[in-house]
Design goal:
single chain; 361 residues; alpha+beta; Helix Hairpins; HSP40/DNAj peptide-binding domain; 4 domains; three-stranded mixed β-sheet; 28% strand; rod-shaped
């Protein structure tokens, strides 16, 4: 059988690759194996299929390059340019085939998402064995010594008498001599681990999808690109608005609020001192919020204070309050504030007028 005739027997063009030849051979074996096909020419057709495969194998498989759309146009995380993209390290190798991306999730604190961070990712991937192309065995060539190339052997009943034909276990019905793949031990799959560090850009949000080119990772890289979906932990103090504003509600000592004392306020960058004002309950901290856009300037933080006073005053607190009242009331109850003085004057004038009206009656 000529090589061109062998390709034709398998239904292939003469420039078919090794992967295409093996796939066609498996498909035809499944179709024409005598145990699956009861037609009269099934055995003869199986023999021609096996001879064709052997002829092509002896002649040497073609090494035609197999390119895919993924090789020519690397995938992007999104068509929206504002969506962040993770990155890893070194130089690209476009000669390597691209596999379907590995899906991962990464959970970040609000602080990590705002400033960006580096996350270490580890994983385990199961893929088809590269040695046997997922078949679990390697073709050695020549007829199978167990079935003589027919792909079937005589079945024996309980007494050892012939009982029909059954698929040859040594060649799995292919008729070609083969052996169990030593790299996957016949499983057809292999498991590999990976570990890499990924830089998360600042300003990522809940649900953002980050893309990592696996070919640029150092150390023990993954066998494919990574697609990482961002999830944010709930924060103990902060709420994030769509425009990047961070909101924080803080209970404060009511007396400290009255006295305009400073307090320590949590921000994404750490604790910060803020002076209270007894005429304000809401405060704005410029630039202490979340990035409004990726790598953009930070929005503001809004602080809402809730003054807290004791439900019941102790004796010492009552005495101190009496002293405080006396210090602001002044001589004759006039007080030191013009508002109090004006109120007291008007009140006394009203009382005197009321008294004269009552006397006249």
């Amino acid at each position: 059988m000529s090589t061109d005739h062998a390709f034709a027997e398998l239904g292939l063009a003469s420039d078919a690759t090794e992967r295409e030849v093996k796939a066609a051979w498996r498909r035809l074996v499944s179709q024409w194996h005598p145990d699956r096909n009861s037609s009269a020419d099934a055995v003869a057709r199986m023999q021609r299929i096996n001879r064709a495969f052997e002829e092509i194998r002896n002649a040497g498989f073609r090494a035609r390059a197999e390119s895919t759309a993924a090789d020519e146009a690397p995938a992007r995380a999104s068509s929206d340019d504002d969506r962040p993209t993770a990155s890893a390290a070194p130089e690209e190798d476009d000669a390597q085939p691209r596999r379907r991306p590995i899906q991962r999730k990464v959970k970040l604190t609000l602080e990590e998402a705002a400033s960006g961070c580096i996350k270490s990712l580890r994983g385990r991937v199961t893929h088809a064995c590269s040695t046997c192309d997922g078949a679990g065995h390697q073709v050695l060539g020549g007829n199978c010594p167990q079935c003589g190339g027919s792909g079937a052997v005589a079945r024996r009943n309980f007494f050892g008498w012939p009982g029909g034909m059954t698929e040859c276990a040594a060649c799995h019905g292919g008729g070609i001599a083969q052996r169990t793949c030593p790299d996957c031990d016949g499983a057809g799959t292999q498991t590999s681990t990976y570990q890499l560090k990924v830089r998360i850009p600042p300003g990522v949000r809940q649900g953002d999808l980050l893309h990592v080119d696996g070919r640029r990772a150092r150390g023990n890289p993954p066998p494919a690109d990574l697609e990482i979906r961002v999830e944010l932990f709930d924060h103990a103090f902060f709420e994030l608005d769509d425009d990047g504003t961070i909101r924080c509600e803080i209970p404060v000592d009511g007396f400290a609020w009255i006295a305009n004392r400073p307090i320590q306020v949590p921000t994404l960058a750490g604790m910060r001192s803020m002076a209270l004002r007894r005429d304000h309950l809401t405060y704005r901290l410029p630039g202490q919020g979340f990035p409004a856009t990726r790598r953009g300037a930070r929005a503001d933080q809004m602080v809402i204070v809730k003054p807290v006073f004791p439900e019941a005053l102790g004796a010492e607190q009552e005495a101190l309050l009496d002293q405080l009242i006396a210090s602001t009331s002044g001589e004759g109850g006039e007080g030191t504030d013009e508002r109090l003085r004006a109120w007291n004057r008007n009140l006394r004038a009203w009382e005197r007028g009321t008294a004269r009206t009552g006397s006249a009656r």
